[in-house]
Write a structure and sequence with these properties.
four-stranded antiparallel β-sheet; 124 residues; mainly beta; globular
Amino acid sequence: QVQLVESGGGSVQAGGSLRLSCVAPENIFKVNAMGWHRQAPGSQRDLVAAITSDGRFDRVKYADSVKGRFTISRDNAKNTVYLEMNDLKQEDSAVYYCATAPTMFDVIRTPAYWGQGTQVTVSS
């Protein structure tokens, strides 16, 4: 079982910022794509952002709703993927899940492993 440890959720007012972190096991982080998904009450779990690296360049993908506001990045030295969230809106409120899979395609559609989730609440 792969353990993904998330942190950084919380409550913020609309327009504010939060940064989520997810630490993965080194052997997984070095080869896998990483992603963030979110799930609001009564809704399905959807992709927020995903990232993969070939060792030199990162490839990223964002949901349309977060483009220009959220940034996904990875720190290979810390085996950590981040989600920087700016200009937060009430509709961004959800439980955010870190995910990993061998390929970008899989981390977007059918991740192999999930974190426990961290709550993000945006108030007006």
